[in-house]
Amino acid sequence: MALSREQIAQRVAKEFNDGDYVNLGIGIPTLAANYVPSDIDVMLQSENGLLGMGPYPTADEVDADMINAGKETVTTATGAAIFSSAESFAMIRGGHVDVTVLGAFEVDQEGNIASYMIPGKLVKGMGGAMDLVAGAENIIVTMTHANKHGESKLLSKCTLPLTGVNCITKIITDLAVLEISEGAFVLKETAPGVSIEEIQEKTAGKLIVPADVKEMTFS
Amino acid sequence: MSGFDKVVNSYAEAMAGIEDNMTVIAGGFGLCGIPEGLIAEIKNKGTKGLTVVSNNCGVDGFGLGILLEDKQIKKMVSSYVGENALFEKQLLNGELEVELTPQGTLAEKMRAGGAGIPAFYTATGYGTLVGEGKEEREFNGRNYILEESITGDFAIVKAWKADRYGNCIYRHTAQNFNPMAATAGKITVVEVEEIVEPGELEPSQIQTPGIYVDRVILGTFEKRIEKTTTRD
């Protein structure tokens, strides 16, 4: 069975290590904050200038001056820091954020990502995504493996305008965990009940299936 | 002493000298930390043909969005403009031009502009539409593009508190682009929630030193929230 959004988020959270500074994009990546294992601490970076994002406020705590990059009202975690946008992107572009998780329309076997623009539709902007993919060492893309028409989103070459080139290392989809290495997708884990054949069928780019592919676990 | 007193008492004084076709750099992220009264004054004056450099363009009827109503903005330089139906309409009509700029590049363009650095190399946007037509250079095996910095005829800034000399501090994430914007205006105007006497702010806590600031005005703020999210 393909994973739900929550299950993808749960699998993403397993990638976090104690002491990691993590930037989570809008959508499934944000959900991963709900599944951080209780025995580790991670600090969430929000690119509008907050390191140490806390949970949503109570109704009484809502403060117009305290928002995240999704423009939602939030709180600060213990030990948080607040700074300017230039400082925020210095830490992003300078490679100081340990893990960046973001969504995408397409990725390809060269590690390119397209996530901000569909020609013919209105372009709303890239926000901080281009800076995030240019700066992070460890970028995880979360997405469904195929679009609603069943067409693969893991391609030999992206067709949409790119957000960044040669920057993606890991992809967690509703069907599988894959890494990108030397011009190919390398299958690492399958979602429970999903066959390698289905993943092969839904991966348009070059796919390598090693002998030691595991079934995903969530805790 | 009084030569350092930056406080003005009316919005007309605060925005005196703004003319058609000028470039205005505005602080704020979404509707958070925006100089509400200074934006309203630009609307009241009817200044047209403006190039506005700001991460976003407000929403319909609030923030920079109100400058679209009478087509006062010719061009926006922003990273994300998705919250605004009038913006979309004017963009599709060809009445408005937009230069989409990655958020970190936008912040650095302001910072560099204010710091006297005309351009900088960044990996952000290399190999994408943002990099098209820009000089490319390799450093230590990585590819970068050359981005030019930005300065404005005016910078409009929202701070929490300023003293009469223009030293400013910001509140929570209402800081965002404001400190960079403050450095990058030929005339920098700061709208604040509270004006204090020089010496009242702890010198080491000042986030924008008064040297960057030309005018300070006491504002009143609606502080509209774009997305109220609670855990209740």
UniProtKB/TrEMBL annotation, chain A:
SUPFAM superfamilies: NagB/RpiA/CoA transferase-like. The keyword Transferase applies. GO terms for molecular function: CoA-transferase activity. It comes from the Bacteria. Pfam families: CoA_trans (PF01144). PROSITE patterns: COA_TRANSF_2. Keywords: Transferase. PANTHER family: KETOACID-COENZYME A TRANSFERASE, SUCCINYL-COA:3-KETOACID COENZYME A TRANSFERASE SUBUNIT B-RELATED. NCBIfam families: pcaJ_scoB_fam. Belongs to the 3-oxoacid CoA-transferase subunit B family. This is 3-oxoacid CoA-transferase subunit B. It comes from Psychrosphaera haliotis.
Automatic annotation (TrEMBL), chain B:
One of its GO terms (molecular function) is succinyl-CoA:3-oxo-acid CoA-transferase activity. InterPro entries: 3-oxoacid_CoA-transf_A (IPR012792), CoA_trans_fam_I (IPR004165), CoA_transf_BS (IPR004163), NagB/RpiA_transferase-like (IPR037171). Gene3D superfamilies: Glutaconate Coenzyme A-transferase (3.40.1080.10). Keywords: Transferase. Pfam families: CoA_trans (PF01144). It comes from the Bacteria. SUPFAM superfamilies: NagB/RpiA/CoA transferase-like. NCBIfam families: pcaI_scoA_fam (TIGR02429). This is 3-oxoacid CoA-transferase subunit A. It comes from Psychrosphaera haliotis.
